[in-house]
Structures are given as structure tokens and as C-alpha cells.
Amino acid sequence: MSELRSGRSDLPPADYIAETKRLYDGLGYDSYRWADRTDTAPAWTPIAKPLSECKITMIASGGIYKSGQIAFHTQDDTSIRLIDTASDTADLRTAHFAYDQRDARTDPNCVFPLDTLRAMAADGEIGGLTEHAATFMGGIYSIRRMETETVPLLLEHCKSEEPDLVLLVPV
Amino acid sequence: MTEPGFAELDYRYIDDDWKADPLSWSRKRQDTVGANAAGEQNAKPKGGDTRTGRSAEPVWQLDEDAKAAAAVDWDEQCLVCIGIPEDARPS
User: Fold this and answer.
1) Looking at chain A, which residue has its C-alpha nearest residue B79?
2) Which domain holds residue B39?
3) B11 lies in a domain?
4) pLDDT tens digits for A119-142?
5) Does the pLDDT of residue A153 top 90, yes or no?
6) Which member of A8, A51, A73 has the closest CB to residue B14?
């Protein structure tokens, strides 16, 4: 964890929403639209116990797969991969079309902070990790397919592994 | 922590320092994301769009990944590769 604690200090925060709008406008697309679900309340749930006692599962959208698994395709692939959280990060790969994967392929923790979470568990900051984390290729252009195909699979993962918290890692 | 809110963790991330003095942050400050090792910003792809074409076939990071996946029995594979339609199984 020492690398994290002594991280570089010369990077400003990324104004992600403004940057995304600027990028899309610059490319000549219609203004980017995020899903806006005003019809349902956020499913936030109060945490019932200290973080140090919480079992966490990670859900990451960076297209991470493990060697031996089937890589994601990049044309609205709505499937998911379960990654054993005891995996060696050297065995992790990425398959995505919508972000520059060079850094992630050098260090998968960029998009799938498994080593970081394991270090936090070892330090007692979190209670531990579920047996698997779940990943998908987040470049799915159909909100409907995301809701009806991918999300139920992710929910099933959560129900099956019974985490106290879910860490969402978007790319 | 048992209530919704913010928790201060004893971890520092690369972009945390500005928080100690929020007014110090400036949009004009050089953005080093995407710069190469020499700090040259032209390492960024032109136009800022790094997307590649989309493919209906699995996009393997390494050629040997395809062989490794093919060597795994489908019954075992579908336990961790979930939601792949039967007709879309890679050959």
C-alpha cells in the first residue's frame, strides 16, 4: 500500500462529465446522455457494521477476463465473468474498445484493484473479499439490454456471494 | 461507519493532494494523464478518442488466451463466463 499512500501529487482531478461532453461535442456526436432513472429511488442501504467487518465484492466494467476464460467481444457483449479473488493479477487481461487499455494491460489494478483490496483486507481496513469478483465489458450501447441481461447476472452474483458492500469500478 | 456519508481512509491516491487546498486546483494546470514518460502531452492519441472498432468476436489480449480458453471444458467455463448465448460460443 506504500505506493498508494505516497502517490504522485501533480495530477489534478479529472472533470469526467465535462470531459466526456467536450469529447463527444468535439467528435461531432450528439451530446452524450447518461441514463437518468428518475422513476426509481437509488438503492442505497445504510451500512450495518464497520468497514473492517464488511465482506466486499467488486464489480468492474473494464472488460477484465482471466487467462483461460473467454474474452469479451465488443459489440454489446452483455455477459459477465467471475474472477476468483485469489487470482494472480498477472493472469488478468482486458478486452474493451472504448478506453485506452495500455495502462490496464500493464497493471490490471488500474481497472480492477484486486491487489489493493487484498492489501486493505490484510491491513484490516476491510473485512475481506467474496470468493469472486464480477466483470463485464461496459461499452454496451443498449440501456435496455444492460438492464435486462447484464444487471440480472450481476444481481445473481451478489445474491450468491452475499457481500456486505459492492465496490463498483467503472471505466 | 454505520450511516451513509463519507469516511476518511488512511490511503492517498494520486489526485488527492489538491483536496488539502481545494482552491489551488486549476484547469490550466498541465494534465499529465496520457503523457508519455518524458511528460510529452502529444502521447495522447489525436482528437482524444481512443476507441477502437467493435468486434462481434472475442477480443483476446494475447493469442495464447484463445488457446487457454479453448482448453477449458465448456461445463467448467460457463460457471465463470456467464450469459454467453449457446450459439455465440467461440469455436
Assistant:
1) A82
2) 17-43+57-84
3) no
4) 999 999 999 999 999 999 999 888
5) yes
6) A8
The per-residue pLDDT for A46 is: 85
Total domains in the fold of chain B = 1
Three-state secondary structure call for residue B15: coil
Range of the domain at A155: 50-169
CA angle A38, A44, A49 (to 5 degrees): 175
State the ipTM, two decimals: 0.82
Contact B82, A135 (CB under 8 A): no
Contact A100 B33 (CB under 8 A): no
The answer to whether residue B48 is domain-embedded is no
Minimal Cα distance from B53: which residue of A? A97
Question: In chain A, what residues touch B52 (CB-CB under 8 Å)?
Answer: 74, 97
Instruction: Note whether B33 contacts A14, CB cutoff 8 Å.
Output: yes
Domain count, chain A: 1
pTM score, whole prediction: 0.74
- Alpha carbon of A56 to those of A9, A129, A133, A167: distances in Å? 28, 5, 9, 7
Task: Locate the chain A residue with the closest alpha carbon to B85.
Answer: A79
